[in-house]
Here is the input.
Amino acid sequence: MHSLIIHMPGSTKRAANVEHLLYSLPQAEVVEAVNGRAVAADHVENLHPGDLHSPRYPFFPLSPGELGCFLSHRRCWQRIIDAGWDYALIVEDDLSLDPELWRDALTLIGQQASPESFIRLPAKNREGPANQIAQQGSSKLFLPKVVGLQTVAQVVGRAAAQRLLAATEALDRPVDTFLQMHWIHGQQIQTILPNGVSEQTEALGGSTIQKRKTGSKLAREFKRSLYRAQVSARPQKA
Here is the structure.
């Protein structure tokens, strides 16, 4: 299996962790992250105000960081296709690993991944299974009812990458939020938990995705709760 590490070259606080990941992950290489601020004008015709898909996304416009993150993942999907790999591991540069649990997760990936796969390795245990597919040690591969957020680590197959690229020529919400929408992109999303994955975001200088908050906190929480309820009403089914 090949590994792709998304990293912005100017992010010096994360450079040491990237070097560690290059040593720790199988057949790893760095993919230069897209600078969303630098390319925003080039994508203005492909950006929509949260209304491209249902349910409507209430926190548009995308910030430069969110745009750059989405385009960075699209760059990795294209790399998998161009290389002709069956699948690859895509991680972000604040990834940290617990070796024992990570070994079990890697064994499951080796047994179960294919060109059709999209397997999440989330840092937070917030997903309930629609059904369990396989188990190695304490690590379980399952189909979650509702796909979780964040994209710190995932295994993406070549066919899945093609499917997702075709579905994201136009954007209207962040990449993790879009990936929840299996009814739009048609890609089954699986999850491995526990998996040994955690994030070092704060220790490495904080999030690289900053977004200006508008409106009152109460209004934002209401919109967030309503949106989550609309997503939860469309669960993945075994």
Q: What stands out?
A: DSSP finds eight helices and ten strands in the chain.
